[in-house]
Fold these 4 entries.
Entry 1:
Amino acid sequence: MTCLARLPRDVAAAALVDEFPWVDVLPEIERAQFVHDFARAFQASAELGQWSVLAQTIVEWRSTAAIHADPALAGSLTGPVDEDFGPVPGPADV
């Protein structure tokens, strides 16, 4: 998988789209970041023998793609917050 990190990002992204079709909805700069994060998480998972590292990376990027796929959701998450939601409880209050 280290060869994936050495490929041009657009080529690596194209290779990952076969396995993760939702990568197509990511903006180009985020596709490049996904390729980088995927390669690093794969390497870390392989070295640690803990595939949860890679699984978490995929879950987080799939969620990011879901936001980009829904313009209304993307707008509500990136728009300004106009109201005060009150004080934030401290860790001891939860």
Note: Residues 2-71 form one domain.
Entry 2:
Amino acid sequence: MTHTPLCTGPARYATAAVASAVLISGVHLFAATSAQADDKPSVPPGTEASAEPPVEVDSNAPGLKMAAGATLAEPKVLDIKQVVEDLGGEERREDTNADIKLALQAEVLFPKDSAKLSSAATARIQAIADEIKKQDANRVRVFGFTDNLGSSAHGDVLSKQRADAVHGVLTQALNDAGVTYEVRGYGEQYPIADNNSEEGRKKNRRVEVSFPRGETSQN
């Protein structure tokens, strides 16, 4: 028994179950088998038609009604956080309905591995003090953080020393005995970026100053 080829010339294709070939203007077109079609769905995953119709919901069902005498709770505004960071990541601001948090990278405040404030640091901290006055805040938190390089004990000490330095300038700038402070050094705890890159570690080396938002700013 002989088989007749589908086309002559150097390109020959057998009549297998894989594909059938049609020669049109010198171009071979192949129709995929059902096995190949299964490998490549005709629609993106998740957009296929559902095998079952959606479940109908009876709006009058007893389980969907409030119990007799029940009342709705008072409306509450969800706490939305807004984060703004400059292009270099040197300054970062987080706003919520209740609080403001301002963070400065350690590099803009201190020399490397030091807790001595740089000459440009005072102006940066003064700007934070002005924001505290604007919000009429009487509770201020000053927290220091480091990256994960070096020993954990060294990071704890350095971060606290840096927080103390910023706290000292804030105290002088605010000159308000009614303001209470919480000053801590957390070392490498609570990173805000990946410590596996220098860019991330740079963001983690920071001092954060947070305080309540004034009532007039919340309205």
Note: The helical segments are 34-39, 121-135, 152-174, 198-204, 215-218.
Entry 3:
Amino acid sequence: MSYRLAIFDFDGTLADSFPFFVSVFNQIADKHAFNRIQPEELDSLRKQGAREIMSHIGMPRWKLPLVARTFMGLMKKHRGSIQLFEDIANTLSHLDEKGLILAVVSSNSRENVTQVLGSSCRHIQAFECGASIFGKASRLRRVMRKFCVAKEEVIYIGDQPTDGEAASTAGIAFGAVAWGYGTYEAFQNLQSHAWFADVNELRRLAGSHDHLDSSPS
């Protein structure tokens, strides 16, 4: 059985924004008074979830909206330097041609998302942007209601454990990508998830669930 609806996270899933995130992180940390990250910490932090990272840098949850707003503002100024991952545009086109309904649920602003997606926006039938990283489940449900799609016919694709948690809360499948913010180790505490080792593997979404597994290639 094929999925009817594939919902994508944006940063680290469709857009290669991690290098930009790293480049502005300490600027944001100084502005909002939490700990800077040193280059040698990055590898270990990418193996952790958002809660562990926030604890490590000393950022309380109430600051999330302020931090997100600052990040989105900086990205708006520099989004010309942020590109889609290689083959994402072709893959979205392929999935659209195969009849999948495609949507985006992201913490980033709709303006940033659509500007970076560019002509690939034509393949996306719904955008739910500006969600908290801990509040995506309600946005996923909203997209499902919009298209009247059963839970078992929906998958959310993301690059962080919080994306998997949102999918679980919404009662849908989750697919983790290898090329984003989180590493394979970051997803080990999730109950179940598909694993996509490279962008072209996303084309499996138009095929059978039997081809989706939770082990790295």
Note: The beta strands are 5-8, 101-105, 126-128, 154-158, 173-177, 194-196.
Entry 4:
Amino acid sequence: MTIAVLSVASEAYPLVKTGGLADVVGALPAALAPHGVAVTTLLPGYPAVLATLRKPRALHRWNDLLGGPARLLTGTLDGTHPLLVLEAPRLFAREGGLYTDALGRDWDDNWHRFAALSRAAADLAAGAVRGRHFDILHAHDWQASFAATYLRYHPVETKAKSVVTIHNLAFQGRFDASVFPALGLPGEAWAIDGVEYYGGVGLLKGGLEAADAITTVSPTYAREIFEPAFGMGLEGLIAARGGRVHGIVNGIDPAVWNPAVDRALAARFTERSLGRRPANKRAVEIAFGLEPGDGPLFTVISRLTWQKGMDVLGECIDSLVAMGGRLALLGSGDAALEHAFRLAADRHPGRIGVRIGYDEPLSHLLQGGADAILIPSRFEPCGLTQLYGLAYGCVPVVARTGGLADTVIDANTAALDAGVATGIQFNHVAADALTTAIGRAVSLYADRERWAMVQRRGMRADFSWAKSGRRYASLYRELLSA
């Protein structure tokens, strides 16, 4: 029996993307198809999404979806898999980012925008559109998690089960209590086991209370969020629902991330043709104004935030250069961190190169040309950049947390001798620990034979969606048979 899944999210590659969430949501339909699961993706009707629709057809209309009209349009996510788009111009037709205005400030009505998306998803799962049946409602992060809440309190009884995936528990969608009356929920939902959260409304909290299953994007993160240090105030709820929490590591899409066919590279290569890789390194050096050197070329492709440990990296820049390393950084985030990295580039011309912003093709080139990628995150639910690094022979140097711990094998002596090492891990996110890890990378890079062995072992690792897709399909079947 084919399982019909409605996957609802605020972004999906290749239509709209601000981070790894989009990559995961975009990859799920193809990942699940071999396992008897048919995924339909529901997205907000941002201008960029509407522009991709060819001859869109209105499948359903709401005269009043949380205060205004809306339409459900049909399309395809990638030319193959079905897409539904919630067209509500009052909520989504605006200039700026997906979640922020042109000045980077959160839209004041984000609660309204994503509650409407969630309500539309719940209506679909409850059978609002004739001929469209869904067995599973799978909601991603706080922007969509309220779909499980609306399904829980829906006036139409349904057999559909709900799954909420936590991509990052730090982002919870917390809003003032004054928004509750506009959410269209019964009064009973305003309760500690409902949507009330420290006197306000918690969109993610409400979804986690209502979901039939909760997943995180790595097994280690699934264990970590039971602890106050990682639970972000929700560890009590997680503990209470512990039997419903599952850790399923993310995968990567080899159709998008494959150095053998990647057109963003100056030279394509495989694990058997690493000799072609230096052409990409030279292209990175040119793009970032870096001088050639004998030491390793490190890269950072990241949001420049505290969570990502970028403040700690800033403390290590001078040491990295002193050890013979160079750095090509691509990212944006906190203004103070952006400024600090620009100053580092000024201090070390030709050794440090910084691009503020995000550039998808350039991120591919960096993975294919840099020797190692630095990921000193304080917490990391899964992380995708280390997976891209492994696939492209860009050795990850990572903090031992979340998905980073699950996907990178530390190059200690035993692992090197056994030929299983794929990167370098360190425990404590502090300047001394990161500096030591960078030093280990510099020393290992000097042994080119062993360095190439680590590269090849990482490139041979299977982080495609095959295993993860099978795990999700198994979870869906467990829910439907319960």
Note: The chain has two domains: 3-251+465-481, 271-460.
